[in-house]
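Q: what sequence does this backbone want?
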């Protein structure tokens, strides 16, 4: 790896990608050429269209490929990101089962970040606080509302911040195993990744619950990106990053298709005024014109 970046999208994935590309260019060796781009994650289609990606893959595939490149014998991948959590089970390097939690913020990085702010602790330091705990508090983390109520109550009765943070870390692990990992046979070697894997308190809680060592890659928070890069490499080059990506105007618009009773909400993505991709439709009615690259003015008539 010659460059890396990890930043908040702040509700603007297009702007975040532009900032990220600039960061990577600054880290790359002189005269380096970007030969191919891979994208994954919830905004993979949007970013893939923007960067003319060679590979646009779902998170399960990208995380599995990235992890196997570092741990070829991995059997279980635990992943907790900012907005969701997932578990991936593998046998002989092949994904055989997986599960995701995308409906509730409890037990994700966003949950820990909000509680860190409530306690006045930088989220990056939560792991250090947790490891100093003497009596971890019992926090009900199956729901963010209940967890916050529980946390406030225990803080008011004098429970130390160290014990509260350790309790939060343990609650995240319990929530993960009882929901995402429910009914799954967790086999070793176990690799833990995603942004939350940087929290040593959560890592320690996983090891206590599983009774096994949990491996955390140095670049565990980037494992999906590493997998996407490897998949782009396999797909072949020839889709170089547009040189003027910082200046090209991109725009998304939400349109409701009126061609049938579904009334699909279709996200249309434009480069300048040209439609370059769309998603959200459950059939091809009303969107056939997109195959020819409908313009913004054309789409206004749908």
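A:
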């Amino acid at each position: 790896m010659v460059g890396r970046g990890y930043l908040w999208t702040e509700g603007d994935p297009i702007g975040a990608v532009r900032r990220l590309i600039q960061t990577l260019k600054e880290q790359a060796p002189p005269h380096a050429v970007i030969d191919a781009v891979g994208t994954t994650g919830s905004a993979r289609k949007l970013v893939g269209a923007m960067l003319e990606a060679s590979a646009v893959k779902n998170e399960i595939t990208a995380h599995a490929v990235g992890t196997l490149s570092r741990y070829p014998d991995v059997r279980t991948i635990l992943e907790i990101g900012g907005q969701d959590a997932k578990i991936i089970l593998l046998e002989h390097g092949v994904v055989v089962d997986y599960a995701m939690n995308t409906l509730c913020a409890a037990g994700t990085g966003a949950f820990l970040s909000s509680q860190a702010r409530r306690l006045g602790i930088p989220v990056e330091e939560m792991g250090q606080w947790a490891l100093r705990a003497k009596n971890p508090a019992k926090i009900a983390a199956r729901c963010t509302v209940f967890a916050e109520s529980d946390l406030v109550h225990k803080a008011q009765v004098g429970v130390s911040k160290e014990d509260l943070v350790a309790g939060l870390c343990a609650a995240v692990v319990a929530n993960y195993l009882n929901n995402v990992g429910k009914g799954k046979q967790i086999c070793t070697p176990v690799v833990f990744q995603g942004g939350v894997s940087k929290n040593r308190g959560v890592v320690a809680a996983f090891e206590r619950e599983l009774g096994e060592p949990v491996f955390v890659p140095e670049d565990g928070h980037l494992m999906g990106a590493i997998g996407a890069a490897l998949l782009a490499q396999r797909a072949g080059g020839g889709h170089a990053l547009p040189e003027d990506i910082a200046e090209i105007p991109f725009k998304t618009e939400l349109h409701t298709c009126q061609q049938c009773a579904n009334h699909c909400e279709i996200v249309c993505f434009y480069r300048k005024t040209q439609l370059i991709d769309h998603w959200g439709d459950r059939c091809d009615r009303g969107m056939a014109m997109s195959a020819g690259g409908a313009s913004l003015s054309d789409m206004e008539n749908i």
